[in-house]
Amino acid sequence: MRSSSEAAIAALPAATPVEEKDTVSVAFVAAALARLTEPARARALAAAGIQAELLRTPQARVTADAFAALWLAAARELDDEFFGLDARRMKSGSFKLLCRSLLPARDLGQGLRRVLQGFNCLLDDVGGELLQRGDEAVVTLHNRVAEAEAHRFAAETFLVLVHGLMCWLAGRRVPLRWARFDYPRPAHAREYAAMYSPESAFEAAETAIAFDAALLAVPVAQDERSLKAFLAAAPRSVFLKYRNEEGMAARVRRRLKPCVESGAEWPQFETVAAELHLSANTLRRRLDAEGASYQGIKDALRRDAAIHLLTGSRLSVEAIAARLGYEDASAFHRAFRKWLNTQPGEYRMRAAPPPST
C-alpha cells in the first residue's frame, strides 16, 4: 500500500515543454513599468520590443518572450528584481543566489521553506509563511505595501515567483487547490485561473494559496545542471509554470493545438468528448469545474496565435484568418475585436516597431 506522499507523487503530471505561443496581459506590462522614469520606461519597452501604444489598449497582450525581456530590462533599470515594489531593493543577482540555496533541500517542503526564508531576508514589506492546515499546505502572504496597485502587483509577483519555484523544485506542476487575495477583483482577474487556480476569491481576509500537504514530501528533482538551464530561461521559466497540465482543459488544449499550428479543421465538441471517452455533458461539466469552456480554449489558442502571426510574420490579415480556421476575414475581425477591443490591422500597426530614420 502506497503512502499519501507516494500517491501524491504518482498523481503529479510529468513536466512538459513550455509552449511557444503563450501571451501575457498588458496589465502586467503596465504594472512592471509603473516605478520606472519615463526615459527608463522607454528603454525597457524598446529592449522588450513592446510598443508603448499597446499600453493604451487594456485588452492587449504581449508574447511571453516579450514580457520576460521586459522583466529583465526593468530589473536592470531599477537594479531591483522585484520591480521597485518593496522598500528594500532586491538587487540584481538575488534571485540566482536564492535558487542556488535550494538545491541541498531534500524535498519540496524543505525547499519551499527555504524559498520563503530567502524572500523574507531579501524583502522588508513582502514575505510569506508556510502553514499546514489539515490536509492542506498553505502559503500565507504578508504584504505591507500600502498603495493599492503596488500592493496588488507585489502579491501577484511574489506568488508567481514562489509557485514557479515550487513547480521547478518538484520538476512538474504543483496544482493549487485555491487562491485568495485581500484586495478587490482586478480588471484582469480572468488571468488568475491560469496563474493560480480557478478557485480564486477576492476581498478575502488574507492573501494565500493552498495545495495538497502530501506534496511537501515530494523529493527535489533538480541538480546543478538543471539549475543552470532554469536560470538561463528565467524569468520565462518561472511565470509559465502556471498551466494545470493534468486537468481536462489542458487535455483539450493539447488536442486542439495542432489545428491552430497547421490550419487543420477544428473538431466538433462531441468528437473531442468521444476521443476522451467521455459524454459531451461530462466533458462540459469537467471543463466548467476548471473555469474553462471548449469555445474559450479555442478562442485563447486562436488569440495567442493571431498575436504572434500579426507581430511576427508578414502574412496578410486575410491569410491569418484562413490559417486560424475562419471562413472569412470579417469573422476573424469580429473575434479579434471581441478579444482585444481593436482591429487586427490596428493592433499590428501599434505593435510594429517604428520605421528607422
From TrEMBL:
InterPro entries for the chain: AraC-type_N (IPR032687), Homeodomain-like_sf (IPR009057), HTH_AraC (IPR018060)
Keyword Ribosomal protein in record: no
SMART domains associated with the record: HTH_ARAC (SM00342)
Chain ranges of the HTH araC/xylS-type domain: 250-350
Presence of the UniProt keyword Membrane in the record: no
Keywords, alphabetical: DNA-binding, Transcription, Transcription regulation
UniProt cross-references to Pfam families, sorted A to Z: Arabinose_bd (PF12625), HTH_18 (PF12833)
Protein name (database record): AraC family transcriptional regulator
Species this protein is from: Azohydromonas lata
